[in-house]
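If you are new to this repository, start here. Below is one unmodified record pulled from the training split, so you can see the exact layout before writing a loader.
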Amino acid sequence: MCVAILMATYNGEGFLRKQLDSIMCQSHQNWVLHVSDDGSSDSTLDIVREYAEKLPQGRVHIHEGPRMGFAQNFLSLVRRREVIGDFYAFCDQDDIWLEDKISRALSMVKVGGGYLYCSRTFLIDEVGCSIGLSPLFQLPPSFCNALVQSIAGANTMLFDSRIRELLAQVPEDARVISHDWLAYMLAAGCGAVVDYDAQPSLMYRQHQQNLIGTNTTIRGRVARFFRMLEGDYRGWNSSNLSILKDFEASLTPDSQMVLRRFSVARASAGAKGLILLRRSGVRRQTAIENMGLGLAALLGRV
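And here is the target side for that same chain:
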């Protein structure tokens, strides 16, 4: 099975070689790399071309990005008809893939109806030292969870052609908060199988240049909580729901019902908003997170 690796780059010269080396060392060698560069002004493209010359012709393809932010850069690769594979894997420019990343994901694939694999990650700092693990989620993936929480980074994801086609339909001018969150919502909402692997598949680098990082500290969680209360979270949800409107016909009947109930709950506040939110079935992964979600519903910030 051929895996099309979709890498979005932008001024990534500092860590790019280690990521490309980890791709070349994959135990599953049937892959092709597509790199979409969003206008790098450093040596990023020179490094990619260097690796392309090392590999057989046709293994590495370079594309010009849309220069509309990281999410749309990734989605631009999904939309390109010349990008062909049996499965697709998003790839950040600064991580380090474990040797069995692709093979492990492929070993878990369920065929038919759509499939999305995602996993936990090892966290490393700028120099590659271990700083922990991403959160371990216990509840199974679901649309009820996906509406209010993204459980895994796109850098861990592998998905089939059905998920690719769904993502390709996202408008180029859509305000996409995060392509991984969107992929989770569309996959779960449209009845695809979503597998969350508790075993890490890569080393996820945390540094100041990260646009989206995984902060597992208490300080980071408190900061995110206050962003929720300030209204950022409501804005993110509004953007996601705006995109989901175009996919209502593709959602399962159960997902359509959950989406309607969640939309009604968001239009209310106080005790009514909290009651409607609970009735919708929408939930985050932990009890503490659900307490925060409930408080946000009381304040009309969901």
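Two things worth knowing about this chain: The first strand starts at residue 3 and ends at 9. The CA atoms of residues 154 and 180 lie 4 Å apart.
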